[in-house]
Amino acid sequence: MVKHALPVTRAQDFAQWYQTVISEADMAEESGVRGCMVIRPWGFGIWERMQRLLDDRIRATGHENCYFPLFIPLSYFEKEAEHVEGFAKEMAVVTHHRLIPDGKGGLMPDPEAKLEEPLIVRPTSETVIGSAFARWIQSWRDLPVLINQWANVVRWEMRTRMFLRTSEFLWQEGHTAHATEEEARYETLTMLEVYRSFAEDCVAMPVIAGEKPENERFPGAVGTWSIEAMMQDGKALQAGTSHFLGTNFAKAQNIRFQNAEGQFELAQTTSWGMSTRMIGGLIMTHGDDDGLRVPPRIAPWQVVIVPMLRDTPDDATLIEYCRDIQRSISHLTALGEPVRVLMDVKPVKAATKRWGWVKKGAPIILEVGGRDMAGSNVSVLRRDQLYRDDGKLNSSIVNRDEFIDQVPELLENIQTGLHQEARARLRANIVRATSREEVSLRFAEKGDFNGWVEVPWCRATGEDLEEIVKWLKSLKLTFRNVPEHSDKTEGPCFFYPDRPAVERILIARAY
Amino acid sequence: MVKHALPVTRAQDFAQWYQTVISEADMAEESGVRGCMVIRPWGFGIWERMQRLLDDRIRATGHENCYFPLFIPLSYFEKEAEHVEGFAKEMAVVTHHRLIPDGKGGLMPDPEAKLEEPLIVRPTSETVIGSAFARWIQSWRDLPVLINQWANVVRWEMRTRMFLRTSEFLWQEGHTAHATEEEARYETLTMLEVYRSFAEDCVAMPVIAGEKPENERFPGAVGTWSIEAMMQDGKALQAGTSHFLGTNFAKAQNIRFQNAEGQFELAQTTSWGMSTRMIGGLIMTHGDDDGLRVPPRIAPWQVVIVPMLRDTPDDATLIEYCRDIQRSISHLTALGEPVRVLMDVKPVKAATKRWGWVKKGAPIILEVGGRDMAGSNVSVLRRDQLYRDDGKLNSSIVNRDEFIDQVPELLENIQTGLHQEARARLRANIVRATSREEVSLRFAEKGDFNGWVEVPWCRATGEDLEEIVKWLKSLKLTFRNVPEHSDKTEGPCFFYPDRPAVERILIARAY
């Protein structure tokens, strides 16, 4: 029996395990401010890697970064009825701009400094960016406008869970305007594909990309697409969304242009976003009972060297030996970038450091002691192959030069291995069903089934859709999306058997 | 007479010229939200370059990035009396977390959703980061803690000016905790030096680094150091600050550690920040009557190729010729990084594009027409040498391969040239004075003197300092700082001639 590094396993209590990984890997913590977290260096380092890699892809598809105000005047929200309906319930409202002494030794908002119009802390920026688009866009020559913003946003949450649901979170939001519907739809799907490939290639997170049904659309959108990832407890996590907004926001905000024939038209707009939620997805995709496992592409440090210091004069030689290894590794290239290698010389016991890096999920951990140095060796621990079959730690002693030569290949293997493992799980846990009873049974039996169900349906809308959603809700289920490029659909609708099915849709419990 | 690209020159109206550069170079614009601006792609691209280069230096000195909450509970501010005194007058206060219909077709804050304790949108994060430090720091082994955050902050401003004074701005704030005062003071000066070298080496902005007098200290600090840059109108711009906080914040927030002897001590803390203000400084340091001039290190695009398209079938060949040049340039390295080269193929007249890039301040603009292509040439425009002595545009035709070979050296020359030009101006415009009358006269005569005055002083404090500050204020002057490594000081204090001077201090009008 392996004794794992975490006090709780996934099988024992998945929700508790999730929180434990976050705290044991020093990723984040409660801040003392309601619903807001502190993202600590290891968690933030992962986010910075995600930012860098996703930002490169956003630029490569022709978008430019900008920055728009944190505050949005209340009146902006009153313009797009559906949009405000979707967000009005959960927004932070700024009403004053000064504090004064309250006469009891404390402070209070100054009644003299009440704002004429309250300001909303942005929950998303369609309205304020739309008003800029209206200024920028006059002629077809100004189109397309392709911009992106990295920002913090606030949606007031009563029940929060770190990275998955917090009142403040970090994200990027892309906003574009186009001359034609065709072009805007193409943009929407292009960014969906950017998210899909980013999730798969960088985060090693297999996802299903597809369109959401009507009831799951972004408030004010004509169509919403998402990528959905399967967590190890079988629940779905929406990991990125891309919206085709048609002319809804353009109408509300008067984004018009003169076309080549001199006539005025409404612009077609899109928006798309991915957030720090992705880090929650990373944990529940790759974590194990020893902590997090970070895919090398997004690991802040890919190789961590732990010298086994003994507080003796020999330590200096050992550190020099390790520095030399560090230098050699830092000149290597893996997965298209210089290898990121750290030497951990903190005044802490070597075993504590080893387990610290195991819990953080550094892809490769090198332990180097006097004996290793004497033999020109290093002891190598791969985070993705931590134990041998007999349950012992799978540490292997390798000649240092041989090891250095292998680093790029090792990192590539770990990246691929994590992806394959998660993909196999995703594939194995999507099943098809033919009746409502079958679905009820599957999800009723606790612990028996951890996966998603795919059913053929008629693409119901309006009240028909509402009825289905109500039934799903009674089982704590939701529609996820209609997978792109899914199998051809024949036969009757799963929900309304008197109608023909036109596509397949995924049903799951979700975060 | 040169006809310049901007409708207003620096000599005519410096303040108006500043706003004109920002709008003509598409850097930023008013957002419609009080005191907040929209930072457009060229302005934000410059900020991203500054971020990247400064972030590298912050990491290289051992700091790690984190993220702390946007909101700070009111009670946190009540703990450090001086600190809140300094900030309480200008903060955005969140009082509600929900909107409801107001019965008149609009929305209003829901009285049922009033927060028990108001939340402040962070004006700076000492208090919330200090409370995290109190959790993180138990033993001397946990020290030093060296962290940094890139974030938006809000300080309510009545009179705003883009990049220089806006209610919301972007910055980085470093926060560190140390076991000893010596170490914390060393950190404070290390970061001052990081700012100094960043300003000089990256932004080509000469600065004076030094300590602020007591009255200019950060609220709650024991000592504040700054870098001060001279704008072209002679005013000073504080471009970065580094604070030694002693144990003031540690006391207020109970940041204690057990030292090696087992006794509890208060930690010594520091904080330091640099903001989007730097972009305002960039404009007023390097801008000229044709717009901005961006030093190559922080230019989002260092070389811009403008093909002279004519809407004829020949365009395809010309574009191919330009793409080929672009490819060759993109493989070059200059100033330690790959050269950033853009080809501008927007559907706009070539002359409009040329002047657009002149106003934006791209370091090198290449214009390529059919005749250039036929001769394997390019027409080169250096933004820092825009006109010949006869006032004509200084465009020169160069063989394309020869030009490509020269690109790295050209960019290095432009970087150095801009720095030297600004440094010469700084040096020429700091004068010494021996009497209050002399200073009054210098600054009284409008337009005559655009610079700073350096005087020997006794390092006055308390009421003596207040008297001086009052006098300075009557002349619209402020103390800037006491330059590091300044000349030895002898003789009497400039302000109180019966006391000996101990150091030299700078006096200037300031932004």
What is the count of DSSP helices of chain A, taking H or I runs of 4+ residues? 14
**Domain count of chain A:** 3
Q: In one word, what is the shape of chain A?
A: globular
Question: Strand pairing plus helix content of chain A: what structural class?
Answer: alpha+beta
Low-pLDDT ranges of chain A: none
Instruction: Assign the CATH topology of the largest domain in chain A.
Output: BirA Bifunctional Protein, domain 2
List keywords for this structure.
Rossmann fold, homodimer, 511 residues, Proline--tRNA ligase (chains A, B), globular, 3 domains, Translation Initiation Factor IF3, ATP binding (chains A, B), five-stranded mixed sheet, ATP-binding (chains A, B), alpha+beta
Structure description:
2 copies of one chain form a homodimer. Chain A has 3 domains: 273 residues, Bira Bifunctional Protein, Domain 2 (BirA Bifunctional Protein, domain 2); 112 residues, Rossmann fold, CATH 3.40.50; 79 residues, 2-Layer Sandwich (Translation Initiation Factor IF3). The model of chain A has no long low-confidence stretch (mean pLDDT 95). Chain A is built from 14 helices and 28 strands. In chain A, the strands form 8 sheets. Chain A has an 8-stranded mixed sheet with strand order 3-9-10-16-13-12-11-27, sandwiched between helices. Chain A has a 5-stranded mixed sheet with strand order 20-17-21-22-23, with helices on both faces. In chain A, a hairpin with a 6-residue loop joins strand 1 and strand 2. By secondary structure, chain A is an alpha+beta fold. The interface between A and B is large, with 66 and 66 residues. Strand 5 of chain A pairs antiparallel with strand 5 of chain B, so a sheet runs across the interface.
